[in-house]
Amino acid sequence: MIVKDAAVLSARILLVAAIALTLTFCVRSSSSDDPVGTSARPSAQERGTAQGRGTAAGRENTNGSQAAFDAAASYAREIGSAAVLALHDGKEVFSFGNTSRKYMCHSIRKPLLGALIGIYVERGAVDIGSTLEELDVDDIPPSLTPTEKQATIRDLLMSRSGVYHEAAGEHPSMVAARPERGSHAPGTYFYYNNWDFNALGTIFEEASGRGIFEAFGELIAAPIGMEDYSTADCTYVLESSKSEHPAYFFRMSTRDLARFGLLYQNGGRWDDAQIVPAEWVRESTSVHTEVRSGSRGDPYGYLWRIIPEAAGVGRGFYHTGLGVHLLAVLPDRKLVLVHRVDTDREFSITWSEIKTLMEMIAEACAPPE
Fold first, then answer.
1. Does residue 255 belong to any structural domain of this protein?
2. Distance (Å, rounded) from C-alpha 301 to C-alpha 158?
C-alpha cells in the first residue's frame, strides 16, 4: 500500500497554479477512447483487413482542517467525481471515493505506453530515430506516401508525424481538426494525432514481441506493486475500415494511477529498482514542442503535456483523459494528483468544477496562516 501519513502540504498556491495551467489544453481535447473492444490483440491478418462514494481523509492532519476536507468530499460527490487522490512525498493526504475501482484511462493510455517504449529504448530494441519506412509500417489504402514514411518514432512520440490517415478511437473534434494528407512534412507540425499514438502501439509490439498490456503488467505494474491492475480489464479496439492499427485502452484504479505518477515523480525508480530509465523519464517529460502562437495547449514532450516554467512550480507534467480524468506530477514539489470520473455512464462534470475541487483540496492541505 502507499504509505498514509499526516504530512502537511505547504503548496496550496503551487497546486492551484499547476491545475489552472492544464485548462488551456484539457477541455475535451483528448480522443473519445471508445471502451468497446477485445482484450485479445488483433492478428496481423485482422489488422490488414481492416461511483464509488467514500469519504475524504485528512489522515490526522493537525494543521489542515477536517471540515475543509469534508467540504471537498461533499463537493466532489456533488459534481460527480468518482475518485480523487492526492499524494505528497508518496503519502496520501486526501482521498475521495473508491480509489480501488477501475475506470477507463482514456488518453492517459499514452504515457503508460511511453514508459514501456522507454524501457525498450534502453534495451536497444527500439531506436526512436528509425523511420516508418525502415520499420515497414504502413496502413490500409490510401496507404502512406513515401514522404509520410520518413516520419520517425520520435516524430510520433511528439505527435508530429505528418501522417494524417484515419485512426481508431478518434474524437470528432480530432477528425475536424485533422490536417489534409501531405499538408505538413514529418517532424514539422504538432497535431494531437491518434494515428501516431496507435501506430506506436503496433511499433512497440513488433519490436518487443509482446502485447502492450502483458508487458505493462510484468515490467511496471508488478514491480511497483499496483494492487488492482489486470490485463483482463484492458482492451484493443480495431476499426478496420479506418486503420490497421488498433487503439489500446487501459482500465486502472485511481490508486494504481497514483503509483505510476509516483514512479515518474521519482525519476522512474521504485525502492531500489530502476523501473523506467531515468534518462527516458527526463527526456520524455522535457519540452519538445512549444505551443503555437494563438493556439491552446501546454507544451508537449513524448506522450506527456508539460507544465510551463511560467507556472513557477518547478518541473511538472500531466495527461488527461476525455478532459475529466487527470494524472499530474510535480516532481520538484513531490506532488501527485489523480482525478477520475465514471465515464462508463453519462456525466456532466466540467473542468471548471474539477479546478474548483482541486483548489478546495489544496486549501484543506495547507497549514493555517
1. yes
2. 6
To which H or E segment does residue 154 belong? Answer: helix 153-157
Residue 273 buriedness (CB in 10 A; 0-12 / 13-18 / 19+): exposed
Residue 6 lies in a domain: no
> 3 lies in a domain?
no
Can you tell me which residue has the cell 475521495?
A: 96
Ordered per-residue pLDDT tens for the chain, 369 residues? 444 343 333 344 344 444 444 433 333 333 444 444 445 555 555 444 433 333 444 444 434 578 888 888 999 999 999 999 988 889 898 899 999 999 999 999 999 999 999 999 999 999 999 999 999 999 999 999 999 999 999 999 999 999 999 999 998 988 999 999 999 999 999 999 999 999 999 999 999 999 999 999 999 999 999 999 999 999 999 999 999 999 999 999 999 999 999 999 999 999 999 999 999 999 999 999 886 644 567 899 999 999 887 776 778 999 999 889 999 998 988 889 899 999 999 999 998 898 788 778 766 764 444
Q: How many domains does one find in the chain?
A: 1
Residue 62 forms part of a structural domain: yes
- Give the CATH number of the domain where residue 299 resides: 3.40.710.10
Question: Residue 61's domain spans which residues?
Answer: 12-365
